[in-house]
Amino acid sequence: MGSSKAIVLHPWRRGATDRREPEAKLAEAVGLVAAIGLDVVAAELVRLTRPRPATLLGRGWIEQLATRIAAEEIEVVVIDGALTPVQQRNLERAWNCKVIDRTGLILEIFAERARTREGRLQVELAQLTYQRSRLVRSWTHLERQRGGLGTVGGPGETQIEADRRMIDERVVRLRSELADVARTRELQRKTRREAPFPVVALVGYTNAGKSTLFNRLTGAAVMAEDQLFATLDPTMRGIELPSGRKVILSDTVGFISELPTHLIAAFRATLEEVLEAAVLLHVRDVTHPDSEAQKDDVAAVLADLGAPHGDDGRLIEVLNKLDAATPEVAERAANYLTRHPQAVAISAVTGEGCDDLLAAVDRLLDRTRELVDLVLDQADGATVAWLYRRGEVLAREDRGEQVHLTVSLDPADAARLRKRLALPAPQAEAAQ
C-alpha cells in the first residue's frame, strides 16, 4: 500500500463490556495500520449511540469525514471494528476512497508478513474466505449495465457468480495443498516426538517481545521489531537449560483481541504446535496498560485450542520489558510475582531475569517427570538403551536374567514406554 494517507476510526459504545479503554484500542489500531506502512494523518474515537445497519456510523460523522477526506486527499479509512459488506460498500461510496475494517487490516498484515509456503497458503485461504462475501463491492462499476430500473441479473450478476466460482475452486485447491502441508508437519512432529528433547513454546499477545526473547535465548536472528505481528511463521531452535537438559524453543505468531474466527481456523495448524509443547511460556508486556486484558485474550485462544492457559502445571507467565518499566510498574510486577510464584520477570532486551526463566523451565520439567519402576529381561538391551538415552536412570539392580530399574521420564516418554511395552496407563491418565 506504500505511503498512502489514512484515517483510523475506532467506533465505541458507552457501557460496552470490553475491559480496555477506547483510547488504548484506538492506539492499538494505529499500530496495526502503521505495520503496513500507511501514513496515519488522523485517529478518532467515534461514539456510537446506535449502530446504523447501512453505514455503521451516523450521517453527521459521514458528512464531516467526507469533507476532510476530500480536502486532505485521504486514500484509506480504517474502521477498527467489523463492517458488513453493505456497510463497507456504502462508506466507500460516501467517501470515494478505500475502506477496510479490522479483519481486512489484519489480513493485509498477515499477507505482508507470511514467509513460509504454509503461511502464505493460510493467509490466502483466509483472504478468499473474507473476500467472497464482499465481491459485490468490486463490481459497482457494472451497475450501469443492469438497466435504469435496477433489474436483477445482467452482466454484473454473472460476473459476480463467475468470480465466486473461481474463488470456490481456488479455496478447494488451497485446502488440498494445506492438507499436504499438514501431513508434512505431522511427520515433523512425529520426528520431534521421537527426539529426546521436550518443546518449550513462546506464546503471547502480539508485540509482547516473544521474538526478542527467542533471539536472546537462542542467539538466532529472528525478525524482532517494535511493531504488531512482526513474527508470523513459527521458528524453532535447540537450547540447553542450566541442568544440561536440551529443549526445543518454538516462537509462534502473536495473538490479538478480536482475531477473526476464520483467521484462527486458517492458522490452527500452526497454533497447534503449542499443543505438543511440554512447557508454554506466556510472554506479557508488563508495561502495557492493558496487560491483564491481553492476558485474558491469549488465555481465550489457548483454551479454544485445548492448550494449557492457566495454573495447570505447564504454563509459566513471563513478565517482559522490565527495562522499560516505571517504578510503579516494577512495583506492580513485584506484587504479581508474590501472588504468582511460578511467574518470572525479565527483560528480553537486556537479558535480566533470563537465567531465572531457564531455571524455572528446568524446575517445571522436573516436576512433570514420572518415576517408573521396571523389570526387564537382560536380553532386552534395546529398551534398556532407550531408557538411558531418553530418561534418567535413578537406580539399577541386575538380578540374574532380569534388570530392575527406576527411571525418571518426561510424560511423553513415559507414555511411549507404556506403548512400547504394552503396559497399562496410570489410573488418572486412563480416566481421561
CATH architecture grouping of the largest domain: 3-Layer(aba) Sandwich
Helix content: 40-55%
Fold-level CATH name of the largest domain: Rossmann fold
Q: How many domains would you count in the coordinates? A: 4
Rg measurement, Å: 27 Å
- What is the top-level CATH class of the largest domain? Alpha Beta
Mean of the pLDDT scores? 82
> What is the CATH homology-level superfamily of the largest domain?
P-loop containing nucleotide triphosphate hydrolases
Write the layout of secondary structure elements.
Layout: E1 5-12, H1 22-34, E2 39-47, H2 59-72, E3 76-79, H3 85-95, E4 98-101, H4 102-113, H5 117-132, H6 155-194, E5 199-204, H7 210-218, E6 235-240, E7 246-251, H8 261-266, H9 268-271, E8 279-285, H10 291-305, E9 315-320, H11 327-339, E10 344-345, H12 354-368, E11 370-377, H13 381-390, E12 392-399, E13 402-409, H14 411-421, H15 427-431
Parallel strand pairs: 1-2, 1-3, 3-4, 5-7, 5-8, 8-9, 9-10
Antiparallel strand pairs: 6-7, 11-13, 12-13
Helix pairs in contact: 4-5, 5-6
Fill in the keyword field for this structure.
single chain; 432 residues; alpha/beta; Rossmann fold; 4 domains; six-stranded mixed β-sheet; four-stranded parallel β-sheet; disordered C terminus
Explain how this protein is built.
This protein is of the alpha/beta class. It has 4 domains: 5-113, Rossmann fold (3-Layer(aba) Sandwich), CATH 3.40.50; 122-180; 198-367, P-loop containing nucleotide triphosphate hydrolases (Rossmann fold); 369-431, Alpha-Beta Plaits (2-Layer Sandwich), CATH 3.30.70. The protein contains 15 helices and 13 strands. A 6-stranded mixed sheet has the order 6-7-5-8-9-10, sandwiched between helices. Helix 1 links the parallel strand 1 and strand 2 (39-47). It is elongated. It starts with a strand and ends with a helix.
